[in-house]
Amino acid sequence: MRVGRFLAWATGLLLLTLLAGLGWTAFAPITLDSRDELFEIPKGTWARRMAGDKVEILPDRIDLTLALNDTLLLRNQDEVPQQFGPVLIMPGQSFRLPFEVASTYGFACTAHASGQMSVVVAPTPAPGWQTLQWRWKRWTARG
Amino acid sequence: MKHFVFRSLPGLLLALALTLGTTARALPALKAGVFEPAQAAPEFSLRGSDGAELKLSRYRGKLVLLVFGFTNCPEVCPTTLATLAEARKAMGADAAAVQVVYVTVDPERDDVTRIRQYLGAFDPGFVGGTGSPDALAAVRKSYGVAAEKVARPGGGYGMSHSSSVYLIDRDGRLRAMMPYGHEAKDFVHDLRLLLASK
Predict the structure, then answer these.
(1) Phi and psi at residue A110, to the nearest 5°
(2) Radius of gyration of chain A (CA)
(3) Residue B136 CB: number of other CB atoms within 10 A?
(4) How far apart are CA B56 and CA B101, in angstroms?
(5) Which residues of B make CB contacts under 8 Å with A?
(6) Which tens digits make up the pLDDT trace of A30-47?
(7) Residues of A in contact with B162 (CB under 8 A)
(8) What is the pTM of this model?
(9) What is the interface pTM, i.e. ipTM, of the complex?
């Protein structure tokens, strides 16, 4: 009798914990660390080009899927200024571009054959099922 | 085994909560893209819409918002200039420490008189600049700005050009670049931070 009551309580508590956990996972606001997505021009790129080596630093088109609060970090490690996407970056200089609004950002880029570079910033999932899915994917992706 | 899984579920949920719940960290300070380390903004010398020589060094001690465009621009330039005018208004007395500089990419049509009239419609404090095609091309090159003449179907031409705004601090250093589309409040946010910084 006592064992039966204990099991019932334990099961109830377990279910409650499960529901609370699911509720938190689905509805707790998502707060994210800012994460840098780095693209770098290595040292010697210009020299290699001058020597006739066809150096491809970036593809014609970049589609990045970033979470909100992520930052695109462009770094020029070469010895000459580089037009990297939308900005001219001096040697040794970095350009850090934050994204706070979900959208597809198109940048004119003369360095690309297509003249276009785009960055796709994915929206924050809505509370509920979408958030639950998002957290599950993120958790399973971490292994 | 089944029993073990059942018993470990709360633990699993707790682990999930701890693993998935990421903590908030401060966003990068500026809304604009930031150059690190900041370097001197390339200097130029153009004919100013106020009748004086237009040089960046004229505005040491002020924050400069540098824009490239043309007065026949149908959408991007009017939007950007209206946003910057709104931002200056929102800054109140601090607006005196902010100078908008508008450099034309269309010297063929934009002379100083036309630029002055055009900018005056947004904010009489804005200053524009023009020069020879070569001089303007050199300025654009130094900032990595693209501009290209595009034929319009009904005749005439427009200019396809970079639409970002460059933020230059009071010491003449190129600190940041705001991509097109940001609201006035983002400029106010960044300008206040730059005014407060050394």
Answers:
(1) -70, -15
(2) 24
(3) 23
(4) 9
(5) 6, 9-10, 13-14, 16-17, 19-28, 30-31, 33-37, 39, 142-144, 146, 160, 162, 164, 177, 179
(6) 776 667 778 888 888 888
(7) 86, 108
(8) 0.76
(9) 0.76
